[in-house]
Structures are given as structure tokens and as C-alpha cells.
Amino acid sequence: MQLNMKIRDRLSLQFTLMFSVVLLVLLVSIYLLVEHNRKKSFYDKLEDRATTTAQFYLAEDNLSEENFSKVLRNYPRSLARESIRIYNDRYQPAFIREDSVKWNKEVIRRVITEKHIHFEENELQVAGLYYEDNSGNFSVIAAAYDMNGLEHMKELRWIMLLGYGCSLLITYLLGRIFARIALSPISRIISNVRIIRASSLDKRLHINKGKRDEITELSTTINNLLEHLEQSFEAQRSFIANASHELRTPISSIIGEAEITLMQDRQTQEYKTTLHNVIEDATRLNAIINSLLELVQANIDSNELQPVRLDELLWEAADEWGNKGAIGKVTLHYHAFNNPQKVTIQGNRYLLFIALGNIIKNAIKFSGKKEVHCELDVTTDNIIITVRDQGIGIPQSDLHKIFQPFYRSANAITYTGFGIGLSLAEKIVRLHNGKIEVSSVLGQGTEFRLLFPV
Ligand code: ADP
Q1: What's the pTM value of the predicted model, to 2 decimals?
Q2: What share of the chain is helix, strand, coil (3-state, %, to 5)?
Q3: What mean pLDDT is predicted for residues 48-70?
Q4: Residue of 373, 386, 409 to test ligand 1 pocket, by largest number of atoms within 8 Å of CB
Q5: To test the ligand 1 pocket, which listed residue (422, 428, 448) has its Cβ within 8 A of the most ligand atoms?
């Protein structure tokens, strides 16, 4: 079957094929049954005629005149190509002369031994009877061509063939109609999906609420896919807008500053100040580009995987950004676990350190150096690292956006940063099959939870 055939055509063809096999089996069975009955009734007829003939010749003396004429009346007409022969036990023809129809000894011997035989020879049906009479025993062999019966069988064959052809045609056409009706929702989905473009990703397929069939499931799946597409398109668009804004700001500042300074001759101190500002802007630009590169390059090669003890990692990160770096105060709490193996995952230590560092740095930065509390916990499914601060918090409406590159909440604008740290942390945790959860109360504090599957 052609591969590029439409489902509708394929369905109707398969349906027709199935039906044709069933119908063929049915028709052939009926035909064989009718043919069997035809043969049987013709043999019966032949036997009757053989008996009657035998009676005619052998038992004429035993029959009353009246009975004998009754017998003859029963069989007024002869059959097509009919022949009846009578043989005595010495294989000699009796009463009826043999002409073109002769039976050999073998056939007569079978009649004598089996008493009762049927067979077919050259389109003729043959019935043999052994007739025992007081005037001697005789083999009566009747043969004839069942013209009527075979004529009827021929008609039946034609009717069946015609009926078969018509049924298949009707089935195919009906199959096509039903397939079209059954597939019409899919055609509708196809034409609806066709008009959705990148610019109209907000469009959704209509879903019939009352129904819970495969079509509804397909539409829901496509709608979910569109939802994801729309979100990632949106994220990409805002990423490009934000990235170009973040990159342009320091560049415009550098150009502006240089141009203004060059407008007239200045004191050495003024040149120095300008150059300092230029360095500051260039450093910021450098930092942004570096973190963008980190974001793009953060990937895990399975060869680089190594066992990483999360308790050690947390201690190091807390020490680096809290206590040792004296940026803020970080307290640690490890919930009881008896086996270091339980807090060990396969991962990239360097990347994990960056991810955890970014979250701890944020907690310190956005809480005005109030104490930050970190915990490590092991459940049956996850190893959980919690970083809790008592800082400015995040508005509920921004909670799902803060992981987008360059996104910064309105209340964070006065703090340094450019909004890449969390996207990088989220990507790294995701690369380790984990996830980040966040909950926050505005003005009171934020809690980040890093979950790594056990
Ligand atoms: P950056 O810290 O450079 O602004 P991040 O990607 O690290 O960028 O964070 C994105 C945004 O998420 C921040 O601008 C801030 O609005 C919010 N945020 C992250 N961590 C905290 C926190 N601990 N408390 C309050 N807001 C936070």
C-alpha cells in the first residue's frame, strides 16, 4: 500500500478488503452447500429412476397394472443425456441394449460388492443400485446430466459474482463517507493549525468541553504545545530586547562620555575620571558578556561527571560568599543523614558551585547583609538545599519570570546585577535533572529550594 496514501483512503480500502474476505468466505460456503444439495438431490433422482426402471423390467409381473402406470406417471420425462443400464451378475447387459453407453466390469463389480454407489464421469452423475429379485440379482446403473441444476448453479454464480462486486463497491464508497465523517475533526484541526504563525501563537484550537475523545486529547496536546511555544517565543523576544538593552547601555555610556570629554581640551584629572568611568562601563560589559557565555556554554558532558558531595559543596559556597568573603553572614544546618553517599550526586562540581553561589549571593545582596540560612535535607526522593533570606522578597507576579535571562524585579532595580545569575543557576540545576522552587513574601524574605533527585 502506498505510503503517502491519505488515512481516509487507507481506512476505506482496509475496510473494503476486510469485508471482501468475510463476504467471499460466506458466499463460497453458501455456494458449496447449494452445490452439495444439488448433487445429492440429483443422485436421489437417479436412484429413483433406476429403481423404477428395475421395477419396470423385473417386477412388472409383481405390480398391478394400476400401480405400474402410477410409477410411470411419476417419471413422465427423461433427464438430459439419461441412460439406464441393467446387468446380471455375469456382467452381461440385460433387458436394455448397450449402445454408446457401456459400463465396464469394474463399475459393475463395485455395484455388486457395495450395493449402492455414486460417482461422476464426464459431466454426468452416475448412481448404481444392486437390485435383488426373485428372477435374479441385477446391477442397475443410471447416469444423466443435471441440466436444470447446473443451469441454476450457473445463475447462482453470476448473481453471487455481481452481488460481490456491487457490495465491494458500495462498501468502499460507504467506507470513504464514514472515514470522512470520522476524520473531519482532524481535517478541521489541520486547517486551524495551518493559519497559526509565529505572529499568531496566541491562537488556540477550539475544544469541545463535553467530549473526552481522542480528538479532544489531540487538540489539548496541540494547545499545550502552542502554550509552550508562545512562552518560549516570548522569552526569546524579551531575552533579545533585554540583552540588547543591557549591552547597549554601557556602550552608549562609553561613547557619550568619550565624546563629551573630547569636545574641548580638559585637565588631566578630568581625562582620568573619564577613563575610570569608561573602565567601569567596559568592566560591566565584560561581566555581562562573560555571564552570557557561561549561560550558553553551561553544558554537561557525560565524561565530566564526577561524584559531588552536596554537603561539602554547600559548605564551600557558604564559606566563599558568606563568611570568608565577608559579604554577609551565612549559617548552615545539615539535617541528620548517616551516610555521605546519600548526599552525593553525579555532576559537574564547577557548574554546581556557580549555581549555588549565585543563589547565596542573591540572598545576601537582596537582604542588606542580614543573616542567610542554608539547610541540607534528604528525603526519600530528593536531596534538598534550602537558601532562606530575610530580604526584600519577590512580588508573586514575578516569581515565574525571575528565571528568564535579564529579568529583574522592579524592587531589585536599585541593586547591582543584570539578571543572568538565576537563569544560569536554573539551567545548571536542570542539567543535573533537578529543579528550583521559590517562595517569597514581599518585604519579609525569600526561600529558594534546589531539589536533586536521589
Ligand atoms: P540579578 O541578581 O543580577 O538581578 P538574578 O538572575 O540573579 O539577577 O535574579 C533575577 C531577579 O530575581 C533579581 O533581579 C531579583 O528581582 C530577583 N531575586 C533573585 N533572588 C532574590 C532574593 N533572594 N530576594 C529577592 N529577589 C531576588
Answers
A1: 0.56
A2: 55, 20, 25
A3: 71
A4: 409
A5: 422
